[in-house]
Design brief:
Blueprint (H helix, E strand, L loop, with lengths): L1 H13 L8 H10 L13 H51 L3 H18 L2 H19 L11 H75 L7 H26 L9 H16 L2 E6 L8 H22 L3 E8 L3 E8 L6 H6 L3 H12 L3 E6 L5 E8 L5 H7 L4
Parallel strand pairs: 1-2
Antiparallel strand pairs: 2-3, 3-5, 4-5
Length: about 400
């Protein structure tokens, strides 16, 4: 009986367990993740979310405090530096026992420097402190805020008036300079947008439409190849010519954006080639002539004059109403000159400046970069002449050596 029981136990233990489908994977999953054997419904951690909210609020408060401290420091820094400068000047003047007029002049220099670096409020505070220092240390009786003679009063009033006037003028000049810089930045952005619009129009209305027509012709040619009456080689030659024309125009448009040929061909050759390509694309006759130019022209001058030529030709084609434009490039021992003229309808120069003509602004700003100048002579129905001059003395040493030799 015991033997049977042992045998039964041994058989039972040796036989594999029969478990339902999916139980074995569940047991393996429990062995792999022993801490996940009993599933619990996770309750929302209100304390944790509250701690995160408090930490975020503290972080925002810290950032706001830091920003406020930086703002206050930026506002107070010029005034503190001015006060330190006044203290140093006062100490030096008092040790050297200089007079009231000399001290007032040195204090005025401090106020001027303060006006250049700080704002109007900080400069005014420094001016008032300077009056106090002059009264306390350099007028009788000493070490008191009081004066016994009329000249001292007059000196203090004059000093404070001059200081406030200088402070106000410097503040106004700085404001006008910032407004002018903002206006120039706006004009530059507007000019860039207009240039992008022009390029996009050329690509879409010219190149894009021609490519579309070319694709339609090629598609039609595919269906006409089965027709024996169609001269396929001649049609392919026509399509090939159109492809070459489009490629030429794309290259010309790329050269308008940037012409690497300026670096190794020279400004005269590049201008001549551009006038020829531009005239063929716009169906305009451009007569370009150039005198013997030096072989070494600074690249910034070459690029500037090339951009001026592009802008002048675009304006002439769009606004002159004529199909003939003259361009001249010449030089003397001290300057290089570009002239673009036409006999078109012209325009009122004063009106163009008042409305802020972008073409004129672009040419002026480019020429300013190379210390050049722009002259425009135009009247209604009398044509337009644009002359750009750039001094050659701003170039490199090699440029100056070459310009001394005859062309």
């Amino acid at each position: 009986m015991r033997t049977k029981r042992l045998s039964f136990r041994s058989d039972y233990l040796s036989s594999p367990l029969r478990v339902p489908l999916g139980t074995r994977e569940y047991v393996q999953n429990l062995d792999a993740h022993p801490y996940d054997r009993v599933p619990f419904r996770q309750e929302p951690d209100e304390e944790g979310s509250e701690r995160k909210t408090n930490a975020s609020a503290r972080e925002k408060m810290t950032m706001m405090t830091t920003t406020a401290i930086h703002t206050v420091w930026r506002s107070a820094k010029p005034g503190l530096l001015g006060a330190i400068g006044l203290a140093l000047v006062t100490f030096i003047c008092f040790r050297l026992q200089v007079g009231l007029a000399t001290a007032a002049l040195l204090f005025l220099m401090v106020v001027v420097l303060m006006s250049l670096k700080g704002n109007f409020v900080s400069s005014t505070v420094v001016s008032v402190l300077a009056v106090g220092c002059l009264d306390y240390f350099f007028t009788t009786p000493l070490f008191t805020l009081g004066m016994n003679d009329l000249p001292s009063y007059v000196t203090m009033i004059v000093f404070l008036t001059i200081s406030l006037i200088i402070t106000r003028l410097v503040s106004r000049v700085r404001q006008q300079a910032q407004e002018a810089l903002s206006s120039v930045s706006y004009k530059v952005i507007e000019s860039e947008e207009q240039e992008r619009h022009r390029i996009a129009a050329d690509l879409h209305e010219d190149i894009g439409q021609r490519l579309t027509l070319l694709a339609l012709d090629i598609e039609r040619l595919k269906t006409d190849t089965l027709d024996p009456s169609v001269d396929v080689p001649s049609r392919m030659d026509e399509e090939w010519k159109q492809i070459l024309e489009i490629l030429t125009d794309v290259k010309a448009l790329a050269h308008e954006l940037y012409s690497p040929r300026l670096e190794y061909l020279g400004i005269a050759a590049v201008m001549s080639s551009f006038c020829k390509e531009f005239g063929e694309r716009k169906r305009v006759a451009i007569d370009f002539r150039s005198d013997g130019l030096p072989s070494a022209i600074p690249p910034e001058i070459s690029l500037c004059l090339f951009r001026v030529l592009q802008e002048a030709l675009h304006n002439a084609v769009q606004h002159s109403g004529v199909r003939q434009v003259d361009a001249r490039l010449g030089w003397t021992s001290d300057q290089i000159q570009l002239t673009v003229s036409d006999c078109g309808i012209g325009f009122n120069l004063g009106t163009a400046r008042d409305v802020g003509a972008l073409g004129i602004n672009r040419m002026q700003e480019r020429l300013k970069l190379v210390k050049g100048s722009l002259f425009i002579d135009s009247q209604p129905k009398r044509g337009t002449m644009i002359r750009a001059r750039v001094p050659l003395s701003l170039g490199s040493d090699s440029m100056r050596v070459v310009t001394q030799q005859p062309p």
